[in-house]
Recover the amino acids of this structure.
């Protein structure tokens, strides 16, 4: 099973700053790498799929990049509503399984 | 608009079973795989498996094989997840979620989520 690790565990930033979140896989991941945002008491929201494609309605300040084992989610300029926990997730082709990273919390500095 | 509405919170005793429902609306139910994911309190996510609402085929995570059953009722656009032999560490919020698809291919990401169903296992 592919294991995802995320760093840092917590990122303390101010509104307007740039956030760079990392997701590393224990072995090469196919194209199926996604990023989610979760706020307290809410279900996750899909931000990025296929490593770099923004989901419907996601603002352009969110971008994803990477391939193989190293992936990055960048928030170009943090808005107040962006302070949340971010998870990466991958799908393996065979066996067809899905795993999540442990999350990165972006909080207000 | 797409909505996944899940059943309410449940409190169960160890060894019991729980069945969570997920009613879909706003799209063609049989066109998208339905997944179940759980999140223990203060923890990350654990994928449990999927059901193809069209065929009824299922694929369970290895950990849950023999222990979880996913079904669907296409007449009412509802998916179900039943977990048996509950233990205290099954206490979690259980989510249903659809898998993003395009051009007839699944894209490995979950684009719509239910609101979550809290299951508490306690004696």
């Amino acid at each position: 099973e592919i294991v995802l690790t995320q760093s840092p565990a917590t990122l303390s930033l101010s509104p307007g700053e740039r956030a760079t979140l990392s997701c590393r896989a224990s072995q090469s991941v196919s194209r199926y790498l996604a990023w989610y945002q979760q706020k307290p008491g809410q279900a996750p929201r899909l931000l990025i799929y296929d490593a770099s494609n923004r989901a419907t309605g996601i603002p352009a300040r969110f971008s994803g990049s990477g391939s193989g084992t190293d992936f990055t989610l960048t928030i170009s300029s943090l808005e107040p509503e962006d302070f949340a926990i971010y998870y990466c997730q991958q799908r393996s082709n065979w066996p067809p399984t899905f795993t999540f990273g442990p999350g990165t919390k972006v909080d207000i500095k | 608009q797409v909505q996944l509405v899940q059943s309410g919170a449940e409190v169960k005793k160890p060894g019991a079973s729980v069945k969570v429902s997920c009613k879909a609306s706003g799209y063609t139910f049989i066109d998208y795989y339905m997944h179940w994911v759980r999140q223990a309190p203060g923890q990350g996510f654990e994928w449990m498996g999927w059901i193809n609402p069209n065929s009824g085929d299922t694929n369970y995570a290895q950990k849950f094989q023999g222990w979880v059953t996913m079904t669907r009722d296409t007449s009412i656009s509802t998916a179900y997840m039943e977990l048996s032999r509950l233990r205290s560490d099954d206490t979690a919020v259980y989510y249903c979620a659809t898998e993003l698809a395009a051009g007839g291919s699944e894209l490995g990401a979950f684009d719509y989520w239910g609101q979550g169903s809290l299951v508490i296992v306690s004696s």
Notes: Chain B touches chain A through 21 residues (CB under 8 Å). The first strand of chain B starts at residue 3 and ends at 6.
